[in-house]
Amino acid sequence: MSDTHAESVAYVRDTMLPQQPPPASEAGAVKWMRENLFSGWFNTLLTLVSLYFIYQIVTGAWPWFANGIWTASSLAECREILGGQTGACFSVLTERWNQLLFGFQYPSDQYWRPVTAFVLLIVALAPVLYPKAPRQLLVVTALYPFVAFWLIWGGTLLAPLVALIGVAGGYVAFKLVEHQSFAMGAFAGLVAALVIWVLGGFVSGSAENVLALQPVPSRDLGGFMLNMILGTVCVSLSLPIGILLALGRQSSMPIIKWICVIFIEFIRGVPLITLLFVANVVLAYFFPPDANIDLVLRVIIMITMFASAYIAEVIRGGLAALPRGQYEAADSLGLDYAQATRLIIMPQALKISIPGIVNVAVGLFKDTTLVSVISMFDLVGMIRGPILASTEWNGVYWELWGFAVLLFFIVCFSISKYSQWLERQLATDHR
Amino acid sequence: MKQIAILGAMTVAGLSAGAVSAGTLDDVKARGKLNCGVVTGLVGFGAPNANGEWEGFDVSYCRALAAAVLGDPTAVEFIPTTGKTRFTALASGEIDVLARNTTWTFSRDVDLKFDFIGVNYYDGQGFMVPKELGVSSAKELDGATVCIQTGTTTELNLADYFRKNNIDYEPVPIETNAEAQPLYLEGACDVYTTDASGLAATRAAFENPGDHVVLPEIISKEPLGPAVRHGDNDWADVARWTLNALIAAEEYGVTSANVEDMAAQAGDSPEVNRLLGTEGNLGEMLGLDADWAKRAIAAEGNYGEIFEKNIGENTPIGLARGLNAQWTEGGLLYAPPFR
């Protein structure tokens, strides 16, 4: 076959030509720019206009950054040093950074405690958020709430220890009774935990100086630390509560269903700021004047209620998206309700709900700044209240709000990036 | 609806329970701390400094009261309140006294069931405009846009004043003084109106204060004073006479510098002797000891010293005494006799 035309063809190439680099206009940055920025007269025009605006913004803002004053002790001094030039007065950040981060009442020699708690938070979150992190770290996660409480609020170590023992005792009781039924186990666990807490409360109440850190009352918490505390605590509490509410709303038991529906619809029908006012103002009327229920605790309860109602609806969406067959398959395997929910329904429903949950979490974290309205000094409260009202810094706006924006952006952007990564990890769906 | 009715009933029950529990003075002594409601931050009147210590004009009154009752000017728990939470905080018993530049009005005194124990600053609503507008009187403000804090008496005063003078204006609602500053500077409104003390503080923080003028018209009376709960007259007396002691001390020339000497032994002024407890038993009548006023004055100084230190002409705020001078110098401060 091959030599059929051997005589009639003058020349046959028997080697491949070496690959040539693509022409300059089809490679690298030039190609990228041609395709993305200048792919037509309209897009070229848009690019040029955008470049012009970026140039204007950068050249306008640059002197402000470059001339920034970092060492003055008041706004007036800043202006004196600048002598009429544009320039930022970043001195407010160098002088008040501790107030912005920790509030103005947290004892300054104890700053290591919230910082340690924050570092430990990252360690504790790692095994939950990254499947590849060593599993042994889960111990840190389990201990973290108690350690963090002790670090931030201080007082005797016995109090969080008793709480921990209570949880552990409850878990053991749950495991012992679980083989009878899930509900019985949960009930036994709850009783065991309550007994230990009540008994332990007497012990830790009578020994207040055992392994005690300097106690810091809740009122003294503030700054970005308060936003972090509220955000972390409320999101992690509202997830399990939200799951229970979502399941309760789908329950076939009418009373449970109605309670869940009324709770969710009531909370979702009320703005968060109203709930915060209730926490601050109205609840004070119901308690006797000396029964001073911690304001931070009241706020945590309210925000958690708020967030769990929203998360419940997100998860209900996930539950509704599961095909009916999944439920039937679980039934046909002979699993009871608890097993089916835990092993088959929830893993799938939660995966569908991730974007929604993250959305709620980010929104909630930003909503924690609303507590500034009920005279708590979170980051925004610190800026609006004490710092802008001090005679030295009255009139500094861009620098302070820019700093707040930066902190919130870092946290929220990381959460968002993480959730995108997680969705890719779990992408087993039908594309 | 039923839920609301129950909530309402519980609120009423709570309110009356709060009013019944008398004996704030004993509570404060037993607690060893004075719970003082202050502003979350107002230049010169109350704000924490870089070290986290509260200072300011209203804060000084709290310290003087704590010194008089407990003997320690630092035995104060400062409870920051906003314009929206201040009255419930006082009514619910969360705070013992509200020292938060609050205007003494009929309805707050009578309807909300508080007792204003005096006036520590006579204020009034004024206007600030940029100089380049060339306005010299509030009556020339026809058609102006006005930045105004919502939910305050200033809003109502403004409406009253402009209606009375038949002037059109366009209000730009803002929430706090801190928000008003950049809005006004950026030209979002032609005029900024609030209490004259606030205007002075705001203007002092501007880069070029000379470019702005405060108009001569003061369109309202804003007597600012500390308040306590209605119905606890013993405590109200202590709060009232502590304020009067600070004012009287200035009148009689008792300062934080010389109060120790003057209280060491009875001098030749009977009023001072009675005030400082070297003569008579005024302290005992209040349920305090004889040195109460001495400690109150020693805490942060007399009224004049407190004024000069926090908001006076040597501070960046630079308020003149004006109406807040002693009656002997043409002002309105007039402490009843200590007798």
Describe this entry's structure for a reader.
The complex is a heterodimer of chains A (431) and B (339). In chain A, α9 (223-249) crosses α12 (295-321) and α9 (223-249) packs antiparallel against α15 (379-387). Chain A has a domain at 26-63. By secondary structure, chain A is mainly alpha-helical. Chain A contains 16 helices and no strands. The model of chain A has no long low-confidence stretch (mean pLDDT 85). Chain B is an alpha/beta fold. Chain B has two domains: 2-122 and 223-329, D-Maltodextrin-Binding Protein, domain 2, CATH 3.40.190; 125-220, Periplasmic binding protein-like II (D-Maltodextrin-Binding Protein, domain 2), CATH 3.40.190.10. Chain B is built from 14 helices and 13 strands. In chain B, the strands form three sheets. In chain B, strands 1, 4, 5, 6, 7 and 13 form a six-stranded mixed beta sheet that branches. In chain B, strands 10-9-11-8-12 form a five-stranded mixed beta sheet. At the A-B interface, α3, α4, α11 and α15 of A face α1, β2, β4, α7 and α8 of B.
SSE map:
The complex is a heterodimer of chains A (431) and B (339).
Chain A: H1 28-36, H2 41-66, H3 75-82, H4 91-102, H5 112-129, H6 138-153, H7 158-177, H8 182-206, H9 223-249, H10 254-268, H11 272-286, H12 295-321, H13 324-332, H14 337-367, H15 379-387, H16 398-425
Chain B: H1 2-20, H2 24-31, E1 34-39, E2 47-48, E3 54-55, H3 57-70, E4 76-81, H4 86-91, E5 97-103, H5 106-110, E6 114-116, E7 121-123, E8 125-130, E9 144-149, H6 153-164, E10 169-174, H7 177-185, E11 191-195, H8 196-204, E12 212-214, E13 222-229, H9 233-252, H10 259-264, H11 270-276, H12 282-286, H13 292-300, H14 303-310
Helix pairs in contact in B: 3-9, 3-13, 9-13
